[in-house]
Amino acid sequence: MRSLLRSKLELRSRLAVGLYKREKVSLARGAEIAGVDTESFK
Q1: What confidence score (pLDDT) does residue 6 get?
Q2: Distance of CA 5 to CAs 1, 16, 33, 36, Å?
Q3: CA atoms of 29 and 23, how far apart (whole Å)
Q4: Contact 13, 41 (CB under 8 A)
Q5: Is the dihedral of CA 2, 32, 40, 24 positive or negative?
Q6: Which one of 13, 15, 27, 31 has the minimum C-beta count within 10 Å?
Q7: What is the C-alpha separation between 33 and 16, in angstroms, rounded?
Q8: What is the distance, to the nearest Å, from the Cα of residue 6 to the centroid of all Cα atoms in its chain?
């Protein structure tokens, strides 16, 4: 699964947003999962 997530930026972004919306991860962790900085993730 990790290799799939690494190769699919859009999938990673959707996953991160979904987790953040459900309050499963923090803003900083969501940004890390999505592969972007915190400001871009907001």
Answers
A1: 65
A2: 6, 11, 9, 14
A3: 11
A4: no
A5: positive
A6: 27
A7: 6
A8: 11
For tokens 């996953």, the residue is 15
Directed axis angle between helix 9-21 and helix 27-34, to 10°?
170
In a 3-state reduction of DSSP, which class is residue 1? coil
Q: Name every residue whose Cβ is closer than 8 Å to that of residue 6 and which is 6 or more positions away in sequence.
A: 12
Q: Is 16:25 a contact under the CB 8 Å cutoff?
A: yes
Q: Is residue 1 very low, low, confident or very high in pLDDT (cuts 50, 70, 90)?
A: low
Contact 14, 34 (CB under 8 A): no
pLDDT higher than 80, residue 5: no
Structural tokens at position 10 = 């859009």
